[in-house]
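Q: For a teaching session next week I want to show students how multiple molecules come together into a single three-dimensional assembly. I've collected the sequence lines for a complex. Could you give me the predicted structure tokens for the whole thing so I can convert them for display?
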Amino acid sequence: MAEATESPGDQETASPRPLFAGLSDISISQDIPIEGEITIPMKSRIRERDSSTLNESVQNTIMRDLKAVGKKFMHVLYPRKSNTLLRDWDLWGPLILCVTLALMLQRSSLDGEEDGGPQFAEVFVIVWFGAVIITLNSKLLGGNISFFQSLCVLGYCILPLTVAMVICRLVLLTEPGPVNFMIRLFVVTLMFAWSVVASTAFLADSQPPNRKALAVYPVFLFYFVISWMILTFIP
Amino acid sequence: MAAAAELAFHEFEEATNLLAETPEAVTTRSDQLSPQGGHVTVALGSSVGYRAEDELEEEGDKTALLQEEKPPPGFWTFGYYQSFFDVDTSQVLDRIRGSLMPRPGHNFVRHHLRNRPDLYGSFWICATLAFVLAVTGNLSLVLAQRRDPSIHYSPQFHKVTVAGIAIYCYAWLVPLALWGFLRWRQGIRERVGPYTFLETVSIYGYSLFVFIPTVILWLIPVPWLQWFFGALALALSASGLVFTLWPVVREDTRLVAVALLSTVVLLHALLATGCKFYFFQPLPAEHLALPAPAASLSPNILSPATVKV
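A: Of course. Below is the structure for the complete assembly, covering every listed component.
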């Protein structure tokens, strides 16, 4: 080994000193043992976490997941360009939001007429299949976001519209009239814009630049349909 | 060199003429050489001397690389469906503009699709149209209720389902039937091939775009204006379809050509009028004597109830 390293050095004595020329002077003796343990701290921590999640109390588990969901709600309400929603995606938040929205939107069972508002199942199907179709569309157009990350983002960005639904129900408890309608229209429009802006902030970067509008338009249509369902709700 | 001239950028008209002659040829992107250039260089190279042999080999390698395409992905892979969504925003907008302004010589498939059909336009235009129909239909009910408070307002959510099914069935089943019929005629007549199924679906999908602003304009509660907009939209849409189908159909017998085109236009008209009548609430006349019918109706309603009780 030492000969091999020395020969390039001999050849190039006339030229300026090459890099690492001095290395050839150092001989690596066979006597120094290079052995030991390489401990990766992350790995051991993960192992500890795995075993501890089995042993921890149920309250800890639930609170941890709820805190993760709550953290993501905050990211949606104040949309900044951050990766939290994408990195640690989960579908609990979208499920909670979708069930809440569907429960509030379903037509009352006393109202037997055929052309009322949507049923629980219809809202559920629209939200989930709409999100799946938008995700498929974004992937087919060449986006580099994973399937569940996109579902997670779209589901979490329904939060402003769920808040709008709660406000609309509260407003509808008062006297119906044009002022009532204007307030609801204003609130729903504002929340719709908020949802679209929030989801675009997370999703637009994953698309190639000349197709961003193609990927964002279905998101706009999706939240428009949900806003329409909220606006036309009559108790 | 003639080879250099062949490899130079072609004008679009030449390209569309080439496409018209060879409809099965798939257009490649403009930064790739056309396969036809390879033939010329090979022919030229054989007549030049030794010095050109290296060039010939290079060109041969290049053309071999260009002509040798990967085997098309199977229909169970994701990449197969990705090839149908290979469009940019500007291309989609250009196709929409092309469908809005049909011109007699301007074949939509050749000039706008350029034999690269996409499913994005068909799918999302149909989805938008279905939702816009349901939303504006509901809005027309709101406007009607303002005039005549006896009309009961309801969100009418089932119309979304009906609109979706109707539009999607029209935009997919009618092109299927048309494509099947054209292929059958091609089998009999042995003429230039008809459009592929996806091109037919694209034609129909983009032709439905003009109905989206029309449906929104149907909210204006003036009846003759509604009919005018409807007729205008139908004319634009149907003429786009006719101008696109004419080159394929004109080689056939006159009877078949006329029958086919009139069926296409008729189906389109049926869709337009069906949507107008089903989704839109006609406005009640403003000078209805509202108290009188209410007074005459209420005793009728009450008396059977009292009889039952």
